[in-house]
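USER: Please consider what follows.
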Amino acid sequence: MNKIIPYGRQEITDEDINAVVKVLKSDYLTQGPEIKKFENLFAEYVGSKYAIAVSNGTAALHLCVKALGFKNGKNVITSPNTFVASANCIKYNGGNVIFSDIDEKTFLIDLNKIENLLSKSINKISGIIPVNFAGYPVDLEKLRKIADKYNLWIVEDACHSPGGYFIDSNKKNQKCGNGNYADLSIFSFHPVKHIACGEGGMITTNNKKLRDKILNLRTHGIQQNKKKLKRNDGLWYYEMHELGYNYRLTDIQSSLGISQLSRAKIGIQKRIKIVNKYEEFFSDKSYIISKPGLVNGHAYHLYVIQIENRNALHAFLRKNNIYCQIHYIPCHTMPYYQDLGYSYGDFPNSEKYYERCLSLPIYPSLSNDEQDFVLNKINEFFS
């Protein structure tokens, strides 16, 4: 096959293009009505009270930790099996990253290991940033009980899981980002994600004080609300009340997000259909060490298998124009974090997983022929 098959990609329709063109012809390219509309629709989609659109997922993480009143020297727990932004947001705010290893079956941060870490920690831990890796939601009901026991906040990294959910102890579906257990949740609209805005992010919460704080931080720390001004010189007047950032999303991006959001449910259904095909194909393959399985509530941003001889398979598939990816290089093995005292061997589950993981192509527009080509090439390699 001459066409490159990536592990993930955006799907842009004529409706998406028309939505963007409409904004381009309007009076507002940014700071206009599309942003609020996108926020309201996204909050409705995940079931939260509030949503705040921002420039990207990393900005969302930064703002969340900042808004929680984080101070220099505080400690926060997160998973080594994530993109570095999940950890870096702690460093942006002057904190210390405390990694905790993953569960060998789910590849999510191991809740038992978290509680064990907290029970033995001599340093005060302020919060936890769980990551819904690959689209598999962390059981936030269980994590909330741990967090409440040790007086911790939770920022849910749900970049991989819009539309996903976990099933609580009452057998109810708890949507990722609904605010029932996490203080704040964040999402990404990078092109490989479920909803593509080019770049973009969203923060969801049920806490109005946190929402108002983030809104202020999002736009330079500037206030124009007459009730909050120290004085008022006129209609043009504004005041900077704290050091904020320019982390806004534009109306152009929001219009694309709104259009994409309208078919988000269909997108997950298409992903699950691909997963069903992959699962059936790999069910009797001895070379498969592990595969995701069919999990209720999984959003399947990624479909990750574990195999021996991963590097050789990756190279073979690349030669055949199949651009698989590795998710993730464990954060604690990055030179930056090694300079802070972490080293290989600290988190064996994450390291063992990294040596054998491979993310296969999965996205709504992946054709049946392309799926067959990927599977047949993997089989060819191991034959």
Remarks:
- The longest helix spans residues 264-282.
- The chain is about 35% helix and 15% strand.
- The two ends are 20 Å apart (CA to CA).
- The domain at 264-382 is CATH 3.90.1150.10 (Aspartate Aminotransferase, domain 1).
